[in-house]
Model the fold of this input.
Amino acid sequence: MEKKGTRGRRVYGGEAFSTAGEVKVWCTSQEESVLKIDMKANIWCVKYNLGSSNFIAAGSADHHIHYYDLRNISQPLHVFSGHKKAVSYVKFLFNNKLACIYR
Done:
């Protein structure tokens, strides 16, 4: 799964790119990823916050959404739990609200 961000960065995650549970951020002017976030579960979707390209949300097979600040990826800012199945879609809405689909 590929999502375009701002400032020439792209973020990848999901089974098509990694079954090891990782999210990679690439700069379009470089050949290698500039950031890698190791996750404990497979990533099904990832989305930039268009209001600030420093923040991403990743939906995972462990029924959670992991919300990260890319300036400090040592741990998520927040983990949204309570979904009954794998989170397959996330989208940022107005006022920094987040919507998701799980199935």
DSSP finds no helices and ten strands in the chain. The mean pLDDT is 83.
